[in-house]
Automatic annotation (TrEMBL):
Entry's localization field: Cell membrane
PANTHER family (alphabetical): INNER MEMBRANE TRANSPORTER, S-ADENOSYLMETHIONINE_S-ADENOSYLHOMOCYSTEINE TRANSPORTER
Native source organism of the sequence: Candidatus Ignatzschineria merdigallinarum
Membrane-spanning parts: 6-23, 35-51, 57-79, 91-110, 116-134, 155-172, 184-205, 217-234, 240-258
Tagged with keyword Transmembrane helix: yes
Full protein name: DMT family transporter
Length: 268
């Protein structure tokens, strides 16, 4: 399966799963609200994954991981224009710097040197910026008062629609035989149900609870979890650099959330 076939299939599966999970249709939206849904679908579903997948064709995964950790910075800049009510405290920037350093240590703990790949690194940077836009739009959507599963599903639908014009130019064929392999089926189920449906719903819940700025730093937990699971599943060893990186990410998150510990109640 090509990357665009996997991308299209996983979000179709994710949409179907969310329909089964919460069948009630989303009704009564305004044209302006639909604009936010469309923008979120274009940014977070279509463009982000297209840029990210193509970036990995031209640059190292370590470069892409480090560049992705700059997303909180762009989220702060965008929040100044779109989210006037979110307060940016000094400790957030301290936490952001620590988390960025931590991701850098984890990304290059096994690399002998850092190599710049302009095309791939630029695409990875575009992906980070696009994800920031998605977070801002999704935070705005969370203020509409709709169920999070419904809003996530609507975003998926727009993302799928924006993919349709790209498919004819991507040399995809969607042959049934490619989908009959057990490994492919299990991987698609994980991507569609877990990495798409469940992860996006929980991310949108986090945006509602914490706000786009504070939630954005949790993106840097991804490489930390990758290191931990590589130890548990692949029996890899944690190096001094990766261990220090994990500690820096955790410290960065703690500092950025300081004085914000409170009970959160969801009204969904």
């Amino acid at each position: 399966l090509s990357p665009i076939e996997i991308l299209f299939t996983r979000f179709v599966m994710g949409t179907c799963f969310l329909m089964l999970l919460f069948p009630k249709r989303l009704k009564g939206t305004s044209l302006k609200q639909e604009g936010y849904f469309a923008a979120a679908g274009l940014c977070g579903i279509t463009l982000y994954y297209l840029f990210e997948n193509n970036a990995l064709l031209y640059t190292f995964a370590s470069n892409a991981a480090l560049i992705a950790s700059t997303s909180p910075f762009f989220t702060v800049l965008l929040a100044r224009f779109f989210l006037k009510d979110e307060v940016i405290r000094p400790q957030f920037f301290i936490g952001m710097i620590l988390s960025f350093a931590g991701v850098g240590l984890m990304s290059f703990s096994g690399a002998s040197e850092f190599e710049i790949n302009l095309k791939g690194d630029f695409l990875a940077l575009l992906a980070a910026i696009i994800w920031s836009f998605y977070s801002i739009f999704s935070k705005k959507i969370s203020t509409f008062g709709y169920n999070t599963i419904q809003t996530t599903r609507r975003t998926f639908i727009y993302g799928i629609l924006f993919m349709l014009p790209i498919l004819p130019f991507s040399h995809v064929n969607f042959e049934i035989k490619n989908y009959l392999d057990t490994t492919v089926i299990l991987n698609l189920l994980f991507l569609g149900l877990g990495a798409s449906a469940i992860c996006f719903v929980t991310w949108n819940l986090a945006l509602r609870a914490l706000g786009a700025i504070k939630a954005s730093l949790y993106i840097n937990v991804v490489p930390m979890v990758t290191v931990i699971f590589s130890v548990l599943i692949l029996n890899e060893k944690i190096t001094l650099m990766s261990g220090t990186g994990i500690a820096l990410v955790l410290c960065g998150l703690f500092i950025s959330q300081f004085k914000k510990f409170r009970k959160v109640t969801f009204h969904n």
